[in-house]
Amino acid sequence: MRQEIADETVAESGYRQIRSDIIFGRLAPGQKLKLENLKGTYATSVSTLREILNRLTSEGLVVAEGQRGFEVARVSVADLKEIAALRLLLEEHALEQSFEQGDVEWEARLVSAHYKLARMEEVMASGDTSKAEDWKRYDWEFHQALISACGSRLLMETHSAVFDKYLRYQMVALSYRGGVAEQEHRQLLEVALLRDSKTAKKILQRHIQGGVEHALGKGLLLASPVKP
């Protein structure tokens, strides 16, 4: 029994690490995932790695190539636009529910999440991109806080999975829009505390669409490398 628990813990830890490495671009789009090479990096067996990669394949983050193994899912303009549209659909709905049901604890979570994000945006604005992962992690936390009072665990989990795919594109393109994004985040905080979901949806639409246009407009996504 103890060995089974240990194996499960190793598998779960490996899954979280590989998933994070894909989302944050440490494993690049199109990169071959060779089991023999990965087992040393992630300190796990080939059979466990195969289970992990099959799990990530079901999430759309990895592609199984039949007898040829696995590779990190590639990126495309069409996929980014589809992911952004789905994120907007889910987040708008969850946001409206959250604004209606949020209490003082929700407000406190939201203010705290925005404070951390704003501080990291200051670092990014200074030209220091060494904290890009922290920036996007706090971005994720802020948007999760916005919808955290929606009352639906399934909606939160689904939104989180879609947001992670959107986040991967931002990390691949390092799509930081500077003061515009900072202002939109601040506005989202303000209208959330006022429970103004109508205005929040308009800001969110600009926010997401602006992120997509920024990445595509600078050609950053198209120029992203594919490692062998």
From TrEMBL:
This is Transcriptional regulator. One of its GO terms (molecular function) is DNA-binding transcription factor activity. The keyword Oxidoreductase does not apply. Residues 8-75 form the HTH gntR-type domain. SUPFAM superfamilies: GntR ligand-binding domain-like, Winged helix' DNA-binding domain. Keywords: DNA-binding, Plasmid, Transcription, Transcription regulation. It holds the Pfam family FCD.
